[in-house]
Every structure is written in structure tokens, then in C-alpha cells.
Give the backbone structure.
Amino acid sequence: MARVPMSPSASDILCPVPQTPLVDDRTDLAMIYDSLFDGEQLDGLYRGCDKGVRLVAVTNRRLMMVETTSCEDRLAMTSVPFSRVISVSYLVSTDKSVAYSTTVGILVQEVMYELGCRGEEQARELHDLIAWQLVCE
């Protein structure tokens, strides 16, 4: 059963240990925090792998991703308003159950961003947090 996400305080934000070392984690985190607008609340912060999406912040207004998906060999800090997010998915190989997925896919227009999560619980939390924002728009 999906949980209804709440806007946590800064001390409640999930900051899991990355699966692989990030090149400059503190700079990426500082960029996210410095990019928040007045009245914007950080609802969740998730770390992934070096390839694809390596950090995603979910706010009450948008997704902010530090990623390599949209720029091939370059690192980008990409902001996506929820109105541009088409869907959020669990991604898993065809020989496994979706219930055990640790990868979340975020479809923005025609680009699929993937975040490899630490475990099924983290993937479920990220999926549900984004899905909640999509159904509340």
C-alpha cells in the first residue's frame, strides 16, 4: 500500500549512502540547497549511481536532478516541474517481480531518467513521493 508522503523537516530527509562514490557529493548537495526557491520545501533527497541520475531532490514544486542522462558525457543539474513529468515507474528485468525493484524510472516528456536506489523500500518511497505529486496536480 502506498503511503501518503508528508513534507518532512530537514532532519527527516532521507539521505542514503550512495551505491558508488560520488565525484563531488558536497558540491551537488550545496547546488540543490542553493537552488531552492522561497516557499519551496524539500520533501526527499535520494542518491543513485554515477551513471544516469546520481542525485534527485523531490520538492513540493519540482524534481531537481544531478544527472548525465540528458547531456551524454556531461553532468547536468536539471530542474523539472511536475507538470512535465509523464509517469514514474518501477524498472526491473523481465525475469524478476516488479515488487522487488530497486530502480525508479521517471519519464519526462520523451526522456526516461533512471535512479538506482539502495533497496526496494527506498525505491518505493521515491516512486510514491513522485506519484503523489503527479496525482495531486
Observations:
- The CA atoms of residues 102 and 119 lie 5 Å apart.
